[in-house]
Amino acid sequence: MKNINKCGVLSALVCAAMLLAGCGADVSASDIVPVEDKELSSAETVENITAEDKPSVMSPDEYSEVVSDVGSMADNSSEASESKAEKPKPPRKAVDCTVGGGYWFTVSDFKKVYSNEELEKCFDRLQEICSDADFHMAFSFKNIDTGAYVGYRQYDQFMTCSCVKAPYVKSLLAKGIDLKEKIPMNTKWEGDFEGIANEEYGKEYTAKKLIEYTILDSDNTAYQLLCQRYGCGDFNSHQYEIGSNYTLGYNAEWIFTYCNTDDMMKDYEDIYRFAKKNKNGKWLIKLLSKAHLNIQIGAALGDKYTVAQKYGSDYQEMAFNDCAIVYADSPFVLCIMTEQYPETEESCKVFKDLALVFDDINSLIAKESDKGEKDKE
To answer: Biased-composition ranges for Basic and acidic residues (predicted)?
Structure first.
């Protein structure tokens, strides 16, 4: 029986050798050893396990060493990336500006730019926006560092709406009013159905709180209470000083008026300069940058820069405006006034389009020197 079994095993081995030879393996029957005839030692078993098959379990010491190495590599990689990212770009070469004629808008004080070709493309885009507008519109732009200016219908009169609130509040802060003073509500703006107008007569608010309501919520009653308490004399006097040719009524009834974009632009440039040297001015900028309705210039540029803006709208007057201080690398002021149905996606479009073009224009303006950051007093 044992002989028969041995013959059977031998036959099987020969067949296996033939099959392997047929598959291209150079194997003879004598090379093949039955598995059951040989046991692998523990050492041999370990040696035959490939690196890929080893369990991914490390001792605490090994783990710490690997983490340390990986951390070191990550730090080196991060440093290399930061080094690469922080590598200064070669300075752009400034050239004399040769662009600006033949457009519907006025261009002045563009002395040095980084590319006349790119600037011309921006002006062409600006011209297209002006040409396509089927409503009354005006705008004024000014780079604060260089004075570079663009104006379109900048002398046309528009309703100020709530854009005037920021310059008025600035006049109070410059005067140094007591922000803790309590002011009773003894009047409500006719037509106000929201905000503090819903509160009872006689309720007291600090001047600080009324300013916050005026800027953040554009609350007309809060604004009226401030005008009634402090008047408009200081505001009006300062308007003459900065060359802004509109004023408000002394009796707190004519607290909205008409003006042009150039005059309102001067007011917002004045706010910028005031904030540079006054802590309450900085507070005003913070309020403007966090105004609750921000659907125009700030919506277009707010993800890129700090934008201190104040909108204005009046449905009866069909007025929709926005004035902004844009804290780009080289700050600029942009004031846009329109006569269109306010606060719709369609009426906001022109503000966003203009903001994007002026951001590109502003990036092409070269400072005359490193002293360009210094404000002209």
So the answer is: 81-93
